[in-house]
Write a structure and sequence with these properties.
Length: about 300
């Protein structure tokens, strides 16, 4: 059965999503919802869609700001409270009045953590791939110079010429990040063309960058001095970042590529303080792009996490 494309009007925002019907004979299969990250779109989950639709109904949206979904120009639309309200209503719309299971990567994970915390009744289980928990990320951003250095690239994205920077040389920056940033993984020319098509949607680059502009934990500005990692003041003073207490009461699985260039290795330390029912599976030879590099392993482990009775 082919996948079908739909649009959901959520709080005045049109969200494009793909639905893959379950191929089993189960009359009322569970639903998996996948949330992608930067700089991707719904098609990043193609391998997972093909695998999980054997037993699940699968729903995969383009995040707001991306590809075929609406792209509000007001940065306030991308604040965390607005994102939580938007995706909670989206889940209610597609859930068929049954708890769904949420799988998320990168910015999709940054949304999924508070979404699961504040709307736990919508979900049966949570699976996170290389997306730092807001509490541990805020902690590391505040006190860890290495994390501040790893996050310094964000300043290029939120600068006044951020859109031009991303689009220059036919999206060279995004190609280097995604196509060349993985271990032993090759994108076909067709898949590369599909990504380019998504990036070239009117307003898509600006929409993608809105998430960074609305971040509550921007790192300090890089210092011009070779002896200092950061200046004393950034767009936000990282030493004054309030560390949120985002507690997840759902069974949670974290799949983590340990060679992630965006996060320090200690980003998961203390995660049990916020996610008591948590399993962590680490992949020593994988990067931030775990779902591309090891789709079979991520699918295997995702299937291991059983829903509560």
């Amino acid at each position: 059965m082919p996948m079908t494309h739909h649009y959901a009007d959520i709080n005045g925002i049109s969200l494009h999503y793909v639905e893959a019907t379950c191929l089993s004979d189960e009359p009322n299969p569970d639903t998996l919802v996948f949330l992608h990250g930067f700089p991707e779109y719904w098609g990043t989950w193609q391998a997972q869609i093909d695998y999980f639709r054997q037993q699940y109904r699968v729903i995969v949206p383009d995040l707001m700001g991306y590809n075929l979904s609406d792209k509000p120009k007001d940065v306030s639309a991308y604040s965390v409270p607005n994102l939580i309200a938007l995706y909670a209503q989206f889940v209610k719309t597609i859930s068929q009045n049954k708890a769904v299971h949420l799988v998320a990567h990168d910015w999709g994970g940054a949304i999924a953590w508070p979404l699961a915390a504040f709307h736990s009744g919508l979900f049966g289980k949570l699976v996170i791939l290389n997306a730092a928990h807001p509490s541990t990320f805020s902690r590391e951003m505040a006190v860890n110079p290495e994390q501040q250095k790893k996050s310094a690239y964000i300043h290029r994205l939120v600068a006044d010429n951020g859109v031009e920077y991303v689009e220059q040389d036919d999206f060279c920056m995004l190609k280097d990040m995604l196509f060349d940033g993985m271990h032993d993984t090759q994108f076909s020319e067709r898949h590369k063309a599909e990504y380019l098509r998504a990036w070239k949607q009117p307003g898509a680059v600006n929409g993608m960058l809105q998430y960074y502009r609305a971040m509550p934990q921007l790192p300090p500005e890089p210092s011009s001095s070779p002896n200092d990692v950061t200046t004393q003041q950034g767009l936000h003073d990282a030493t004054n970042v309030k560390i949120p207490h985002i507690r997840i009461e759902l069974p949670t699985l974290i799949l983590w590529g340990e060679q992630d260039e965006a996060f320090v290795t200690g980003i998961l330390e203390g995660i049990e303080d916020y996610v008591p029912d948590c399993q962590v599976k680490r992949f020593a030879d994988a990067t931030h792009w775990l779902h591309h590099e090891k789709p079979d392993r991520s699918e295997e482990h995702t299937s291991e996490l059983q829903s509560p009775d």
